[in-house]
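In response to a reviewer's request, we include the raw inputs and outputs for one of the modeled complexes. The two entities were modeled together in a single run.
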Amino acid sequence: ARACRSDSRREDFSRTPMMQFMLLFSRQGKLRLQKWYVPLSDKEKKKITRELVQTVLARKPKMCSFLEWRDLKIVYKRYASLYFCCAIEDQDNELITLEIIHRYVELLDKYFGSVCELDIIFNFEKAYFILDEFLLGGEAQETSKKNVLKAIEQADLLQEVCCSLPSSLGGVARCHERQDVSTARSSQTE
Amino acid sequence: MSDVVEKTLTALPSLLSLDSQSGAGKLSSTSKLGGLIRSITELTSKHEEEKLINRELAAIKEQVSSPNTSMRQMKEIMVRAIYCEMLGYEASFSYIHAIKLAQQGSAIEKRVGYLAVSLFLNESHDLLLLLVNTVLKDLQSTNLIEVCMALTVVSQLFPKDMIPAILPLVEEKLTNPKEIIRRKAVLALHKFYLIAPNQVQHIHSKFRKALCDKDPGVMTASLHIYLQLIKENPDSYKDLTGSFVAILRQVVGGKLPVDFNYHNVPAPWLQIQLLRILSLLGKDDQSTSELMYEVLDESLRRAEMNHNITYAILYECVKAIYTIYPKSELLEKAAKCIGNFVVSPKINLKYLGLKALTYVVQQDASLALQHQMTIIECLDHSDSIIKRETLEVLFRITNVKNVAVIVEKMLDFLKLCNDDYTIIDLVGKVAELAEKYSPNNEWFIQTMNVVFSLGGELMHPDIPNNFLRLLAQGFGSEEEEQQQLRVFAVDSYLTLLESDTAHLPQRFLQVISWALGEFSYLKDGLEPCKVTKLLAKLLDERNVTSESRSWILSAMAKLSAGPGAAALALQVSERYSSSLDTVLRQQALELLHLSQDPELHARVLPHGAAWDSFEVDSSLSFLDSFVSEALSQGAAPYKAPHQRQEELRQEKALSLEPYSISLPVSLSSCSITDRQSPTLLSMSSSLSGNSNELKAGSSTLKLEGVKRVWGKEGYLHQQDAVEEAAQVEEAATPALPLSPQQGGAESQQTHGDLTVVEQEKQKLASSLFVGLGSQNSTFLMGKSDSTSQQFRRKTRAADSTSSGVSERSSSSSHSSCSDFLHNNLLEDSQNSLNTQKIGVSNGTHEGPVTQSFQTANGIPEEDGEELGNPLPVIVDSDVASIGTETSKETSPFLDAGMVLVQPCSPQTELRDFVQPGSSGITQTSLRSQFPPELSQLPHSDISLLSSDHSLSLSACRAYRDDALLFVIILSNCSQSSTNGLSVQLDCKQLKVASLRGNALENLPAHSMSVCWYALLMEEPHTQVTVAGSVSYRAVPGHTQTLQFTDKLFLTDFIRPLTLSTEEYGKLWLSFSQDVRQNLKLIQGEGDPLRATLSALKEQLQLHIVDIIGSEGIVACRLLPDSPCLLHCRIHGGSLAVWLRSPLLSLPDCLLYYCQKTLEEC
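The model returned the following structure tokens for the whole complex.
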């Protein structure tokens, strides 16, 4: 139990990342994506998820996007049928977290080409890859949309190249090939 | 943008037919995962889903263990396993295969493998160790993508112990030509810093390089590290303020590439990060704050667009402005900004506005007045989080006049609340307010009743404890009033017990029974028999726990003296003397005896005895003989639970040490003790196989080494009951502009026609915001609570009036006697309407450590007059553009007991002003001032701390065996003498054991005086900052303060610990905290081990216990008495050090200095 909130606002030496976890779930309460930036046991994770999904779904549309939950602040936003939900600490900036969610949606949208829930259901690993390029270890890694998508594209290209190459080729050769392709591609786009 | 997304997402139902569209990565409905997902959507019940997934998991299990499964198939299987886990089913059998996939797959399969690992495992999972080699390999790969993947996984989770293995590779990546690699490497180091700070301490210079990186992405990433570093130690990074300001200016000015724009706002995330850093740097530091005023102003101005992201920046900006040293012009703009937030129709902004208000109103309550109508509307808002935050604002503007209304609002909220965390928090706040501002006794008791009923078992145990202490010890007010409070309590509890008690929480029942037991005799005409009957009824209730029963029984024991009560007591004790609960049975028997023997009762439980007369021997020294007898008969020594667990864990744990010493086979029988005791290990390797002798040695080892735990030394830190009377501090906070307000009346007039509803609101407003006007402005500053405050929690009073000196000791060892001292001091100064005096009371110190220095440094108390009135008072009247009446001449503030002291001008200028040489003060002349007891001690160089035109402060550290002496030399470099000097030192992390000469009546021109503080470091810190101030009068009646700061290091507090090898061995076993690391070995002529150890000994004041062959054992202690043992062994060209200590972070901190020393050698 925390002693006093006013104290935690004044000084904070906690060694936790800005974001503690991020959850995506549907209007029916089905979990679509979960990313934990603080070490928790599976049991705790399940409990937190269950509680939060319930609490957030019970909120009315015109209500505040922020929630106090345990000693954390929950920032959530609904996009169509999906809820995006992040946990931060009390002294963090709620509005900027809301914009982090929005930037992530923008990234998904750009990558999938007008994203919908089904994209995320069927290609959730891609959604994870995008998230990892955007947020790393709970902190914003790269906020430029172009740079994030470039990194993802490069890794994806590797996949295409790998698939088309005979498996006898070594990693280095693949690497060179991939870089050629990626430079060609990026010069095209520019 | 969001509209577009929203539109496309709302078109979702039409997509449900699974018509796959063209475009990147559309629905892969043909894959196995697709099949799985679709069959799940077709299901109708949870039960069916369970069956399907279990079938799926069984199939997966079979496939992963089949040798024919290719890596490509494995990748597909992993994705399905992740999906099943997301649905909440366990697939732990696949974890090992995820690691295998990351290890063996080609790049694309690896990617999925790493993703699966990062989703499946967490930092403490054992399997993670298997990933280390894969990560090592990939970090060295020539493939950019593979390196990226490795860095990504490292930044998310990595075993703490294995960081040294990959650290050099990650560091090397900081110079990689690709910015994405540099960026990820910086973030990986950030992660390392978070989980193991001492591992990355040596690469701080590289962080600076990352900050100056040409790529804005890398620079942004490095700010994460800096934010954390500066949070922990702002003083070390003040020199970077200029750079941060310059970066922010460029960002705000739009100098970054357009890529970093977000909705036309330049790099908002970067801006916010910088604002946070600046606010930490500028906090309480005028000169640093001055550097950032301009750029903050510009940020405020630029963020004008009406979009969430600009509001986010504005909010951070406002927060920074209110955190740093205040500037009226900026404060005014920030206040306006908060106003916009609060009145915004957007609920998110309104919330942030309220949140901003919570920290602003403490400094400037007029803002709450301006927005009183909004605040009242928010109190009835349909969204409870808005209500909650509003209560938070109200909590901070509470004073004696509005406490009743505010507490009522808080209790109303509590009654509807069902969230445990909120209840705990709010109940604590209500209790705090009730104690602090209660208008009368009746109200206080009633409020606390509600607190106990609502808080129930959830609330912090301090609340009932404090309440009972308050009832018992009183609060310094009239005896009569205190009796009245007790009678009120008794009355109200009797009424409660007479009605239905089933709903009362256990904690409340305990409070009730204790109070009734102690105080029911105070009420005239109340028969003890009646109370006992009620208690007996309570005792029989089914839902009463046995803990509460025990409280009730002891209350009955206290009441059992009366005539009617005895018979009832007999009845009760008969029933409970056969209880299964032994505690209850014991109490029942005690009750029986006490009720039958009035004389005994009068002796054991006298009415109204002093509360603090009990002495408790917390060291249990009376058991010493019992323990030693038991030990001599062969009993096992006591080990604390954590120690036992630690040893169990160690026995089970895998040894991660490489096999380096080949022990003779015959020694294998004592391999377990080998691991635990390095001395034994060294003996064993030199003994070369005499197993009999060794076994004997190990068994004696276990038998002894007891005294530490049971003996007095083991509890030494608890016994250090150093009573310290504190000094009444001169206004502790930096001067803040205060805008006086004309009171609620003015704003009421502006509202012309009022509907009934509005009238009610107005009424509420006047009751809520009463006391916030200028006539009551004292209450705005929590620090200068006036005497009208009713119940002051003891420790709180000490906190607010004493300097940091007593803060550490007040928590545990303040006797009530010194509390009264505080109170009296405070009361005196307030009654006489003086401003707070620099009254220095005499502190007596009786710690065993500091006996030699025990000197009562009583200083004649100054007349408050001289110090009080003529202080430079900053009254900034135009802050909120109201209440311009109060100008610099008026002194209502002074009358009300508030003094604002102008802090000294920037230190940098001062340093230039007086150099030690220029004013003719040399090291030797300073040293000649040392009293004899100091001059014989080893000490550091004397350095100039701070100076102004009349006074110059120098300091040095003298190393006494039992403490670090922080010596401050005051020299008067002006032509006239200064008067009334008083030195204050403040450092929360250190403990002041004694001080000497910190006040001086008179210091003649060109003369010097020395004062010193004996400091102890009870909790290890690598470095701490001490701050302090000297106040003096150069011109009569004109007090000036000179502030200074200095740094002290852990090494200043390290002393050698002289031990024999055997004692070392015993101690080693009893310590639970250990750390291991390989360090650089000094290669010179002669034995490298001896050379290295003696270098460490010289630099760090260690004691070398013994050196046997390639091993050495070293011991030291952290003042006052925390030992740390080092076991050093030469291992493959480096020095393997193993540190153990009873203190959590001491090994870490000491290791850092060992590392540093050896790097510098």
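As requested, we also summarize the result in words. The two ends of chain A are 54 Å apart (CA to CA). The longest strand of chain A covers residues 19-26.
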